[in-house]
Structures are given as C-alpha cells and as structure tokens.
C-alpha cells in the first residue's frame, strides 16, 4: 500500500508543485487526474525517488521511500512522460541492457522474463527492430515492458496514452489491465475517459493538492439525476445550474450542467460520468479560489 502524508515540494524558482498532499492507494490501477501543470509529474517523480520532497512522509509497503530510496527502487517500475532510447539498439537488446542495469544477472532467467514481457506487450514479432523505428503505441508498450522488468510491485506510468491513436490506446489499455492484478499501477492522465475506463480508484489533483479521492463509481453515483444537457447556441446557463462543459456534438453547440432539479425545458437528464465529477471539482475549486481572492 502507498501512503502519502502532507507531502510538499517547492522548486528552486519558488514554484510550489506539491502542497501538503495526502493520498492512499492500494492494489490495482489507480488514476491520478488533473489539468496540465497541477503537479502530477512532480508527485510521480517524487514517489519514484527521482527528486526529494521538502517535507511529508511517503511509505510503500512499509518502506520509508525518502529514507530508503534504494529499497523502493528494487520494487519500482517507472515510465516517465517522455523517455529517450539509444537509437541504434534493438528492442530486445535494449531490454537486455535495462534488465542488467536492474540487477537481473542470471542470463536464462533474464531471457525468459524478456520473452514473457515481449509477448505480454505484443512486441515479440518486432523485438529485432530498433525502438527508434517504433510507432508511438509500440514505444509506449516498450516503455511498459522495460518498467516491468524485475517484476516491480509499484508501477508508475506518467501519461502513458498521450499521443496514441484509438487502436493503440485500446491495445495499451489491455496491457494495463493485464499487469495491474498483483501490483499497484499509478497512472497519471488528463484524459478523463482513460481513467474512467481503466481505474477502479481515482484521485483528482489541483494546485498541488488532492481535492477528491475515492472509488471511481462512488464518486460518480451521487451525481445521478443531476446532470443535464441542452443543444443550441441560444441556450443560456440558468442561475441555479453549474456549467460543466460547453462543447459541440456534430457541430451543434452543447451545454452540460449540474443542477439538483431540472434547470428548464431545454435541458434533458443524462447519465453522469467521471468527466462530470471532474469538471464539477474544477468549477468548485475555481469558485473557492475566487471567494478567497475577494476576501
Ligand atoms: N524542475 C522544475 N523547476 C521548476 N518548476 C517546475 C519544475 N518541474 C515542474 N515545475 C512546475 O511545477 C508545476 C507542476 O508541474 P508538473 O509537471 O508536476 O505538472 P503536471 O500536472 O504533471 O503537468 P503536465 O500534465 O503538463 O505534465 C508547474 O507549474 C511546473 O511548471
């Protein structure tokens, strides 16, 4: 289990990336959701022992991550948002190289593990190609294969589906579900659909703090019967409703709002989604910040 208490991090230029952040995550896929720049990567890099926090505690399965980073690293797989590869090495050779760096010295066991991971990530047929020649989806699956070397109990994936086409995303999702059975997979994204499809548990991060955390379905259910949609450019947001999203459907303007009762005859009730919960959290945080500024 990952237990984070009151974690804070301020960069040298004064940017406060994490503000007394508290979070608990157990086994399975855990989604970390938040807009750009709220501190997701800062949190993941800190958990991955790539940077230190200024204060707070960070425990994983009884390991004090800040006191014993080496012990944590033996249990850790990490896929950063962007990762470089040696351009001239094949996928197979690169995995061999990383496996040795991770301490997998026994050649037969190492080869077996690499073969299993190549099969799991659907890369066996292209293992002889250089990773530089891979498509975006293949690269991400390679990134997951390298992170899984050594069978880590904690896997950290920073925006793993960014830039993938729908087919590659679906393939990646299959791999993620497959590998999350007996470990904690901490996954960051600003693609709400990805988190809703994959993660039974989620946390929403805003301005360096967790503003909402829980079972994904339990966060959505209380919104049942309170999400409404209206089509048309002339429809206004009624005062008793909270605007969640203005968008388009096949070119027609679409308004999506939160309201305990029907906001008016133009609005139809629709099923609530994680995106609604997320936008509501953003709107509430924005309103709170405005109130604080006004005081
Ligand atoms: N090394 C650094 N030095 C100074 N500021 C930094 C550094 N790394 C990140 N920041 C700042 O800290 C804040 C949080 O950044 P971070 O990358 O953790 O956010 P994020 O939620 O992962 O964003 P994104 O989704 O865009 O990757 C931002 O204001 C960012 O500009």
Automatic annotation (TrEMBL):
Domain ABC transporter per the UniProt entry, residue ranges: 2-232
SMART domains in UniProt: AAA (SM00382)
Pfam families: ABC_tran (PF00005)
InterPro entries, per database record: AAA+_ATPase, ABC_transporter-like_ATP-bd, ABC_transporter-like_CS, P-loop_NTPase
Keywords: ATP-binding, Nucleotide-binding, Transport
GO molecular function per UniProt: ATP binding
Domain of life: Bacteria
Sequence similarity: Belongs to the ABC transporter superfamily.
The protein, known as: ATP-binding cassette domain-containing protein
Originating species: Rheinheimera tilapiae
């Amino acid at each position: 289990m990952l237990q984070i208490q009151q974690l804070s991090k301020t960069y040298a230029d004064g940017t406060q990336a994490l503000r007394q952040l508290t979070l608990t995550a157990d086994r399975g896929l855990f989604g970390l959701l938040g807009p750009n720049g709220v501190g997701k990567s800062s949190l993941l890099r800190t958990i991955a022992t790539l940077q230190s926090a200024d204060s707070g505690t960070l425990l994983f399965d009884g390991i004090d991550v800040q006191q014993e980073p080496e012990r944590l690293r033996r249990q850790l797989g990490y896929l950063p948002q962007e990762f470089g590869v040696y351009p001239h090495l094949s996928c197979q050779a690169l995995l061999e190289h990383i496996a040795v760096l991770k301490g997998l010295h026994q050649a037969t066991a190492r080869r077996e593990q690499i073969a299993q991971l190549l099969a799991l990530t659907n890369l066996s047929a292209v293992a002889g190609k250089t990773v530089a020649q891979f498509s975006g989806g293949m690269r991400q699956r390679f990134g997951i294969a390298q992170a899984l070397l050594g069978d880590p109990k904690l896997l950290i994936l920073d925006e793993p589906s960014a830039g993938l086409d729908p087919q590659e995303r679906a393939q990646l999702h299959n791999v993620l579900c497959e590998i999350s059975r007996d470990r904690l997979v901490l996954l960051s994204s600003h693609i709400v659909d990805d988190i809703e499809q994959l993660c039974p548990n989620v946390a929403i991060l805003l301005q360096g703090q967790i503003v909402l955390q829980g079972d994904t379905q339990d966060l959505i259910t209380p919104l049942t019967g309170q999400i409404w949609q209206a089509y048309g450019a002339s429809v206004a947001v009624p005062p008793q409703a909270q605007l969640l999203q203005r968008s388009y459907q096949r070119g027609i303007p679409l308004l999506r709002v939160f309201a305990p009762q029907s906001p008016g005859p133009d609005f139809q009730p629709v099923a609530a989604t994680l995106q609604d919960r997320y936008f509501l959290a953003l709107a509430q945080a924005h309103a709170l910040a405005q109130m604080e500024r006004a005081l």
